[in-house]
Amino acid sequence: MDVILDNAYAIAMALHTLAAVVWVGGMFFAHLILRPVLVERPAPERLAVWREVFPRFFLWVWISIFVLLATGYSTLLLGFKAGFTGGPGHVDIMQLIGLVMIALYFQLFFGPWQGFKRAFASADYPKCAEYQIRIRHIVTVNLILGLISIVIGVAGSLLGA
Fold first, then answer.
1. Measured distance CA(2)–CA(95) in Å, rounded
2. Euclidean distance between CA atoms 125 and 68, whole angstroms
3. Please, which residues have CB within 8 angstroms of residue 22's CB and are 6 or more apart in sequence?
4. Cβ distance 12 to 80 under 8 Å?
5. pTM (2 decimals)?
6. pLDDT tens for residues 63-85?
7. Which end of the chain has fewer CB atoms surrounding its CB within 10 Å, N or C?
C-alpha cells in the first residue's frame, strides 16, 4: 500500500509542478518575451495578436488551476506525506500565494479580459489598450507571486521548512 501511495504522491507532485510551470512560464514568456516584441507594432496589429494569444493562454491557465488545486489538495486531504494539518510551513505559504494568484486571475478573466474582447470587437483600440494595460499589471503581479511560490516550494522542501 505504501508503494501505491508513494507513486500516487509522485504523480500528483509531478503534475502539480508541470501545471505551475505552464502557468508561470506562460506569464514569463508573454511579459518578458512577447510583449517587448509587440510594443513596436501599431496598436491594431499589437492588440490583434493579444486577442489571439490570450484565449489560448487562458485555456492553459484554467487547466493549470484545476490541476494545481486537484493535486495540491488531494495530497493534503488524502494524507500523503503528513496530511492536511501536518505539512511543512512552506506548503501553507505556497497555498496562500496560489489562492491569491487564482483570485487575481479570476479578476483578470472576468474583468479586463471581457472588456478587452468587447473593445476589440468594436475596434475601440484606445479602450482595448487600456484593458490590455490592466491585464498586464495583473499578470505582472501574478508572475512575481508565481516565481516566489516556486522558490519557496523548492527552497522550503530543501531546507525542511
1. 26
2. 35
3. 60, 63, 64
4. yes
5. 0.90
6. 999 999 999 888 877 765 555 56
7. N
Cell of 113: 479580459
Cell of 83: 496530511
Task: Give pLDDT, residue 79.
Answer: 62
Q: Which ranges in 78-124 belong to alpha helices (H)?
A: 89-110, 112-121
User: How many whole angstroms separate alpha carbon 60 and alpha carbon 58?
Assistant: 5
Per-state percent for the chain, helix, strand, coil, to nearest 5: 90, 0, 10
Q: Closest Cα partner for 59 from 23, 95, 25, 108? A: 23
Is-contact 116 54, C-beta < 8 A?
yes
User: How many Cβ atoms are within 10 Å of 153's Cβ, its own excluded?
Assistant: 20
Question: What span, in angstroms and rounded, lies between the C-alpha atoms of 30 and 140?
Answer: 10
Give the position of cell 468587447. 118
* 8 Å CB contact between 101 and 145: yes
